[in-house]
Amino acid sequence: MPNNKRKNRGKKNKEDTMTPPIEKDTPIQDYEDDEIEEMQEADLKKLRRTLRSSQKQILELQKSLMDKIENLSHENEILRRNQNEMKQLVQQETGIVTRNHNEMKNSIDQMTNTLESLKNRMGEAEERILDLEDREQERIQSNQRKEEEIRNLKNIVRNLQDTINKKPNIRVLGVPEGMEREKGLECLFSEILAENFPGLEKDRDILVQEAHRTPNKHDQKRSSPRHVVIKLTTVKHKEKILKCAREKRQITLRGSPIRLTADFSSETLQARREWRDIAQVLREKNCQPRILYPAKLSFVNEGEIKTFHSKQKLKKYVTTPPALQKMLKDVLHTETQKHGHQYERR
């Protein structure tokens, strides 16, 4: 402070020397100069403190800025390294994706070629299948024709047997075993005629040529008696007796019911038996069924007479009239199951 005062005084002296002489200061003027000097020193002190504080803040701000610059440089370095690593990783991934793309493309090309090959093979297989189906259809049709021919031949043979070998024969069903031991089968037949057809019994032209049981040996397990076959001399007499039997309907021997029918081959008899269940159902419905020679079914449906040679044709016909279909549905289904079981046993 004294030094400052000296400096100020020196300045003042210098100014005094440089300025022209003026009048001598008064005491009041001297007091004002001292006060001004003291005020200037106070402002200088305050200014110095302000400068020191500003200098300190500037230093702190500079330090803070340097720290921030250093941090930014460090972060920039980290970002640069991460960028380089990311760039390398992207390049690696790009290479992997490119390789995978090429592999995928090669795989797709291979799959396309394989599919084309499979399509070609499937086309060839379909052509072979169609060819085999055509051959199979031809074989089925050929087998059907052969089966039809075989059935026709069997029918022809059966008809020949029925018309030539057994045409004058009458088959008697229901005669108990052992009854012929008393008088013989010929006398039993005469007794049947006398009991049921008195007018025919007096006809001397009706002669029995031969009589026997069939089959020849009696099976003890068989519940029903064996049939009696009567061979007459003429077909005319056979037809006459059967006509009377149809008209009388109920035939008896010593009060027990029996049946008179034409003598057919075993195949024809089996074919006629197969119509029995169906004829029974039709009879219950008042359809007037009849089993015609040799093994045909005839009945009346809606005022028309229908005749069928086989059950297959009857099944086809039954599918059209609803009433008849409902009537014969169960019995035809049962017959189909029976034939299926017989085929399995064979």
From TrEMBL:
InterPro entries: L1_C, L1_dsRBD, L1_RRM_dom, Transposase_22. It comes from the Eukaryota. The keyword Coiled coil applies. Residues 1-33 are annotated as: Disordered. Residues 37-166 form a coiled coil. Residues 13-27 have a biased composition (Basic and acidic residues). Residues 167-263 form the L1 transposable element RRM domain. This is L1 transposable element RRM domain-containing protein. The lineage of its organism: Eukaryota, Metazoa, Chordata, Craniata, Vertebrata.
